[in-house]
Design brief:
The chain has one domain. It is 57% helix and 18% strand. The chain is built from two helices and two strands, in the order H-H-E-E. The longest helix has 20 residues.
Amino acid sequence: MNESTLDASVAAELQDLVISSSDVNSFLAELCELSAVSLSDALGHEVSCAVTLNQHHRTTTQALPQR
């Protein structure tokens, strides 16, 4: 798979996440899962992922539980 094909694949996966997510929290949870799984596979060891969003003085964090 060349770099432009990989970029298009990642862009398509992210677009699908945005479209299919019912709210920001579900999008962030799915983004964490996609990121952790992809990086774990690429690096050959377990990777954890968390995202913290601070909006309008409210903070929310989504994290992927350890497998």
